[in-house]
Design a protein that fits this description.
The protein is built from 7 helices and 5 strands; from the N terminus they run H-E-H-E-H-E-H-E-H-E-H-H. By secondary structure, it is α/β, with parallel strands linked by helices. The protein is elongated, with a radius of gyration of 20 Å.
């Protein structure tokens, strides 16, 4: 039962891991300011310029939040939200767009691309932190409320933990061996 206890502890530690945020911000000064502010929320923050590095970080880390700067144009930056909404394993990620435009057409393009919230590019770091905190709290609540993990379509740890603990108790009571196999699959790209 010691191995099972260790496996349960490992699963609990993974569940309690800090949320991840990916930043896709072109301006180095803004990117660093946002990274520092959001790291203060107890999160893991990956900060990149636009491009392949952002997409790689999103698909590998499966963040709870992605903050994208549209660099004033509403153009190439919106390809990332479009792509994220098409990939089932990162589609649940909340997306916040920092945009220079607040006109109806810009907001419509961002919404059509799958952006959840948008902030003016000149927004204060405190406002970005507040929006990020709210989005992370919603993601946590949704994750805890769901019975299945959206990435794996397997039962969440929360939903099987009581069963595992009962099995350990029974094995200890009757002095029986109990085995638990935990399989982690990284890099799932498609559901077949």
């Amino acid at each position: 039962a010691t191995l099972v206890d260790e496996a349960i502890d490992l699963l609990r530690r993974r569940q309690a891991a800090a949320p991840t945020i990916v930043l896709a911000i072109g301006d180095p000064a803004l990117r660093e300011t946002a990274r520092q502010q959001l790291a203060g929320l107890g999160t893991v923050v990956e900060a990149h310029e636009h491009g392949e590095a952002v997409w790689n970080a999103v698909t590998q880390l499966r963040p709870e939040l992605c903050v994208i700067d549209d660099a004033g144009g509403g153009g190439p930056a919106l390809h990332v939200p479009h792509a994220m909404r098409r990939e089932w394993d990162v589609a649940p990620t909340s997306i916040v767009l920092l945009t220079a435009g607040s006109d109806e057409a810009t907001v419509a393009r961002a919404t059509a691309a799958g952006v959840d919230d948008w902030l003016p590019a000149q927004a204060t770091a405190a406002l970005l932190t507040t929006v990020a905190r709210n989005r992370l709290e919603r993601a946590t609540t949704q994750r805890l409320a769901a019975d299945l993990d959206p990435a794996t379509r397997l039962p969440h740890l929360r939903s099987v933990m009581a069963t595992l603990e009962r099995m350990v108790a029974i094995a200890r009571r009757y002095n029986h061996a109990l085995a638990l196999v935990v399989v982690e699959v990284d890099g799932i790209r498609e559901r077949r």
